[in-house]
């Protein structure tokens, strides 16, 4: 059993895209996988798949602890095109008050009896549902871009998680949508060093370059994992780190070595984290 939370403290970084593609990639390994949308209230999983919320987290709020396995399975949506099992976010904002940390724990515990892997697309917040998912998880993938605001928000986020009692060894950094420009390489190296060597050390698990095809594939409700080499490589690196990769692992998907930081990293770090001393 494994619970993996895909999280971020900046919208628009590809968090849901990462969650969707990690789920479909993990499914390809032969394991049973479910994707749980806890990006409350609106979520993005069902929308990304072009589906409605005929089944949602709302249905799980109403369940009790003694519900049968057959009944649990009836509360899971299945994408007919690829067989992905998923649960969309709540159907209505009127359900917000009923979704607390205890309900989230109950949902996850129930899913643990049915699936090998639970992948959770979490909220861009520290609400009770989000914290419950983070605390019960085995790994937390923090998704950021090379943008300063995104990196800064997520640096503070990982420090806050540790201060809340989250084991820092759970945390992994996924750098997404790296632009094709001359300065991008150095910026990424600086982010890797900043997250890895300051505060609560966090390992970078993947560096994914921007590919306009990712957005095009999402518009068509497809999966970038199947058609975008850079994105696929990043997801494969995550699978490998989680111990979920296929026995035969492609050479191109191996994590790239990160060079030592340049002398300018200290100055860049001060710009990124003005509150550091």
UniProtKB/TrEMBL annotation:
GO biological process: negative regulation of cell division
GO CC term (a single one): cytosol
Domain of life: Bacteria
GO function terms (MF aspect): ATP binding; ATP hydrolysis activity
InterPro entries in the cross-refs: AAA_dom, P-loop_NTPase, ParA/MinD_ATPase
Matching Pfam families: AAA_31
Ranges where the AAA domain occurs: 2-151
UniProt-listed Gene3D superfamilies: P-loop containing nucleotide triphosphate hydrolases (3.40.50.300)
Keywords, ordered alphabetically: ATP-binding, Cell projection, Cilium, Flagellum, Nucleotide-binding
Name the record gives this protein: MinD-like ATPase involved in chromosome partitioning or flagellar assembly
